[in-house]
Design goal:
Blueprint lengths: L10 E5 L15 H6 L1 H7 L3 E4 L27 H13 L3 E6 L9 H8 L11 E3 L18 E4 L4 E4 L15 H16 L3 E4 L14 E3 L2 E5 L2 H4 L4 H14 L6 E4 L6 H5 L9 E4 H5 L4 H18 L4 E3 L8 H4 L5 H15 L3 E5 L19 H5 L43 H4 L6 H15 L7 E4 L6 E8 L2 E8 L5 E2 L4 E5 L7 E2 L3 E8 L4
Parallel strand pairs: 1-2, 1-13, 2-3, 3-7, 7-10, 10-11, 11-12, 12-13
Antiparallel strand pairs: 4-6, 5-6, 8-9, 14-15, 15-16, 16-20, 17-19, 18-20
This protein binds 1-deoxynojirimycin (NOJ).
């Protein structure tokens, strides 16, 4: 019998490996640390985890600069640790996705070291080298991390392309050796038993071969725009091939794409039945706390993805964006809204991704400039603060400066006040965000069982509110989100959960509730 497609409605927990749990006191999270905390994740009620890159890496972009795709960075563990982590996760019923970084390697990857060794080395063709123009780079593209997207290889006088840091040279996917090598890499991890991959910058692998600059009339400065680098039709053939490759394996494996595209229809093309499985919905992550905006995002995604028969994949936080309570406003409103947003997300049809610490309601940590490590900070001369504030390690207990994350010195300093928000302090406290998340995941499993066919429909509701229903054979889960409306009466159904304590039977603004209407059997 075919196994149900587990990924269609899974809740996946993103583990930022360096910051989850440190087993050896060096201040950096590692694979044995994650393994020791798997029961926590099982008890939280998620279906699987996504591990950010743990491969050997010089760390210029904290792991997204990979020097060897088929090993584990010694600071984070060994391949044997990975196997044990995977086996334990599977024994606990948790799927494991690993991160694949195909757009660029580290500058310390042997291919790039060879590429720099001589203009004639065959590995040079794996990268995008071009002669300069008028004494400068081949074109005016800028890097996502600031500064030019080209660095000169002085001995040859040629430039190489890097959409991110200079330590992350872009691969040339038009050269057969590159896709061939990545098929081997995928097989390596599939053979080990992973349940799938999160694909980094999945839209950018093939660049338009003329590397043309784009000049928009309203923005006369040419830039390394994502329109040039992406939407190359070759991508679809590649992902079809990858899906076919994964389809040759016994269990159902999944590909989740990171694609920064606004256009929902364009996004949906990547998850046609024979392509990738899921693609993050970043419009949801970036949507303001406004009822109409949120409803619009949900409608657009459901329409576009419904056409290709793929589920949306919702996300509110990850390791690249400011933590949601901070984005949603000042204290205490930001956290109230973030908690309501979580209930909204977990009631929507499709898969959801929860970023570590989101279940604790952590805010963006404030760091001093000399503590910042994200290359974005240095490369923009401090103009952009970078992403360190959402990557600060997790507080497990209220002890010491490592708050149970490490017995040593955490690689990014942890705010003292996080002792109060630690897992230990929140556990068992019904008002905590940890218990809210745990309850929501348990209720989701009960009322929207994995694999069940569920309907989705909006109900009419006053301005500033969102009300929708999810119907199964057993009854209807109703999600009410009061974004900025009048207190909303919650009667006539069983109240399952609210994101904030109620004043009477009315849901105040900045809050969400789940209700259940049992099916009346005749
Ligand atoms: C997206 C990743 O999420 C981000 O952390 C990384 O810096 C870039 N891709 C480059 O790999």
């Amino acid at each position: 019998m075919t196994e149900p497609a587990w990924w269609r409605d899974a809740v996946v927990y993103q583990v930022y490996v360096r910051s989850f749990a440190d087993s050896d006191g060096d201040g950096v999270g590692d694979l044995p640390g994650i393994r020791s905390r798997l029961p926590y994740l099982r008890d939280l009620g998620v279906d699987g985890i996504w591990l950010t890159p743990f491969y050997p890496s010089p760390g210029a972009d904290h792991g997204y600069d990979v020097a060897n795709y088929v090993d584990v960075d010694p600071q984070l563990g060994t391949l044997a640790d990975f196997d044990e982590l995977l086996a334990d996760a599977h024994a606990l019923g948790l799927r494991v996705l690993v991160d694949i970084v195909p757009n660029h390697t580290s500058n310390e990857h042997p291919w790039f070291v060879n590429a720099l060794s001589s203009r004639d080395h065959p590995d040079r063709a794996r990268y995008v080298f071009r002669p300069g123009l008028d004494g400068g780079p081949p074109n005016g593209w800028t890097s996502v991390f600031g500064g030019p997207a080209w660095t000169c290889d002085e001995p040859s006088g040629e430039y190489y392309l890097h959409l991110f840091a200079p330590e992350q040279p872009d691969l040339d996917w038009h050269v057969d050796a590159v896709p061939e090598a990545f098929e081997e890499i995928l097989r390596f991890w599939l053979d080990r038993g992973v349940d799938g991959f999160r694909i980094d910058v999945a839209q950018a692998l093939f660049k338009a071969q003329d590397l043309h600059e784009v000049v928009e009339p309203e923005n006369p400065t040419p830039f390394a725009d994502w329109h040039t680098a992406l939407q190359q039709q070759e991508l679809h053939g590649l992902y079809r091939r990858w899906r076919e490759l994964a389809g040759g394996y016994d269990r159902d494996r999944a590909f989740v794409a990171e694609i920064s595209l606004e256009d929902e229809d364009e996004l949906a093309r990547f998850v046609r039945p024979d392509e990738l499985n899921l693609v993050f919905n970043f419009a949801f992550l970036h949507a303001p706390w406004e009822a109409d905006a949120l409803r619009g995002v949900v409608d657009r995604a459901c329409a576009a993805f419904g056409t290709v028969g793929a589920p949306p994949a919702w996300v509110l936080e990850n390791h690249d964006v400011t933590r949601l309570p901070t984005r949603r406003g000042d204290r205490p409103d930001g956290l109230r809204r973030a908690r309501a947003s979580l209930l909204l997300m977990l009631a929507l049809p499709g898969a959801s991704f929860v970023y570590q610490g989101q279940e604790l309601g952590l805010e963006e940590a404030v760091l001093r400039d000399d503590e910042r490590q994200d290359p974005i900070f240095a490369r923009t001369n401090g103009e952009r603060l970078g992403r360190d504030g959402c990557r600060v390690p997790l507080p497990w207990t209220d002890e010491g400066r490592g708050l149970g994350f490490t017995t040593g010195v955490p690689w990014l300093p942890m705010p003292e006040e996080w002792a109060w928000q630690s897992v230990e302090r929140q556990r068992g406290d019904a008002t905590s965000t940890l218990e809210l998340t745990r309850s929501a995941l348990a209720l989701r499993r009960e009322h929207l069982p994995p694999g069940a066919t569920t309907g989705f429909a909006w109900r009419e509701s006053p301005p500033g509110t969102l009300v929708f229903e999810r119907t199964t054979g057993e009854g209807t889960l109703v999600c009410v989100v009061n974004v900025a409306g009048e207190p909303y009466p919650l009667d006539g159904a069983e109240l399952l959960l609210t994101s904030t304590p109620l004043a009477g039977a009315r849901l105040p603004a900045d809050a969400a509730a789940w209700l259940f209407e049992a099916r009346v059997r005749v």
